[in-house]
Amino acid sequence: MSAPLPTYSFLPWLRRGIANSLTAADGDTTVHTRAGLHVDLQLTGNPVGAGPAPTATFGQDIALYGPGDLVGVDGRVVVRTEPLNWITNFESNYLPAIDFYDEDFPWRYTPAAPSADQLRLRPWIALVVLTEQEFAEAQDISGRPLPYVTLPDASVLPPAADLWAWAHVHLNQSVAGAPGEIVSTDLPGVTGRVQTLLSQSPDLGYARLLCPRRLADNTAYHAFLMPTFETGRLAGLGLDPAAAPFATASAWADYAGRQAGAQFPFYLRWYFRTGTHGDFEYLVRLLTPQPVDPRVGVRDMDVLSPGANLPGITTLGGVLRLGGALQVPDTDLDPAQLAERQAFENWDQPFPHPFEQALAAFIDLPDDYSVQTAADANSASGLGADVEDDPDPLITAPLYGQWHALTQRLLTNGDGTPAPDPQNWVHRVNLDPRFRVAAGFGADVVQANQEAFVDDAWQQIGDVLAANSRIRFLHLATEVAARWFTGQVQPLAAAQPERAFALTAPVHSRILGSPTTIAAQRRASLVPPVLTSAPLRRATRPGARLMRSLPFTAAVSAGNLLARVNAGEVSAAPPKVVPPGVVTVGTVAGAAPAGPGGWWRRLVTLAPWLP
Known about the structure:
29% helix, 19 helices, alpha+beta, single chain
C-alpha cells in the first residue's frame, strides 16, 4: 500500500487575537507610533428592590504594541535559517529564508489592517541580504539597544511596498475543502479548517520570510533581520519612535526627512557564501541551443547488392538512410534539406517497390514449401534462375512479428490474392530495409538475453498457473456437482420429494424458487427449519427405530410429513390451554361487583394471585 502524497498549503498572512480588529490601512498618516482600538465595556448591576437592573457603558481607546516597542527578538522563535550560518557553498539561484515557529509572528506587531482583498499585509520585520561592500560595521554601539550597520546607499534594500509578497505561512497539510473550495484568510484571523488545524497541532505550520535578492556566484553575504517600519528602526537605535512620520512609514523608503548613510539596526544576523555554480536548474540554464548538422542521427546504407538474388535499389544512388532515435526536427531544416529528407523517407512510393515485391516472395517461401515442392516453390518465386533451378529449399529471411500479427505471408494471401492491408506495420517492418535492420538488432538483443527473459517470464507466470489451477478445480467441482445432481438428487426428488427437500436444506438459501430463495419461502410457510435439520433426518430415516414403531398408514407417513405440517394438519406442539383452577382476568371481571369503583378495588385485592 503506497503512502499518501504530502500536501502543503500556503497563506499570505496570519494573525491571532485583538490585532484582527484593526481597521487602519497600511500607509494611514493619521496613525502615529501605535495602532489603536476603541473598546466599549458595558457593566450591569443587580437592582435594589423591584427596579430595573442598572447599566453603564465605559469607552476606552487602547493602543497595541507596535515595532517601536520592541528592541529584540527571542532566538527561540527561529526554527531554521536558509542557509545555515557559515555555509560556504550555497546555491546562488536559491533565495535566503528564515522560518519562525509562531505562524503569526511576522505580522503580529504590524500597526495596520490587511488590504481590502485580504491578500496583502506587510510584516513588521524583513530579511535583508548584503555583500560586505554594501554596508559598514557600527563604530559606536554604546547606548544602542540593538547592533546596527550603516548603508551608504539604501537602494540595495528590497522595495518596501513589495515586502508583503516575501512572507507567508507554510502548512504541512491541506486546508482545502470540497473540490473547488479554498479556505483563505479573513478578518478576523483565519477561518474554517485553518484555525482547526492549528489548534489541534501547532507544529503543522510555521511562518517564513524570504529575501528577494538575486545572488551572485562565489560571493560572501551577510543576512540581517531588520525592522520594516521607521518606528522599529528608531527604537532599535535608542531614539524616540514618535519621530517617525506615521506608524507604517518605511524604514528605508523615500519620504521627507530621509538622509543618506542611515543606520539600520538588526535583530538577527548570520553569514554565508555562495558557491561557484547553482543547482541542477542552474546547470540546465547554461545549456544553449546550437544548430545541428542535418546528417546527425542518420547513417547511409548501401542497398545496391542486397544478395539472395534480390534486385538492388537503384534510386537515390542506391543508398537509403538508416534513422536513429535522435534526429534534427523538420522545422530546423531549410526547404532543400527537408525535400531531400522526404525523398529518402518516401523511397518506395508508389508502394510496393520491385525490391519489396521480391523480398516478400523470398520471405514467403517457407509458407510455399508447406503446400508445394521446393522446386515448384522456387520456380514460382521469381527470384531468378539461380533460385528457380535449385530443387532444394532455401534458407530465407525471418518474418518479424509473425506471431503478433498472426500471419505467415507478406503482401499476398496463400491463394495469391492481395493482403487486406499490405501497408500495415508487419509489412512495413519486414519490407523496408531500414526497419529490418532495427528488427534484426532487436532479435539479437532477445537472443543474447533469452535465458534472463525466460526466467522473468516464468516468475511472472507463477500467479497465472495458480489461477489456472483454481479454475480447473472449479470446473471439476462443477462437473461433479452436476453428475451428483442428475444421478442422486433428481431421482430422489421424483420418488421422495420431501426427502429430497430435507436433503438439500443446507443450500436452500442459495437457490431461487421464484423472486425469493427457497429458504425465504420456507420461512413464510408453517414448516419450521427444524423439520429439515440433520438430527431430524437421522431420526426419520426409513430404517430408524422411531419409524419402525410409529403406526403409519398410506395417508399418514413420514413421506408426507412436511406437506401435512404446511397444511396445518400436524403441529410441532399441542395448542396452549389454561390449566384448570387458574384465576384469569376474565374470572376476576366476572366476579367483580357492579357499581362505581367496585371492579377495580376487587381487582387490586386479587392482584397478587393473578397469573
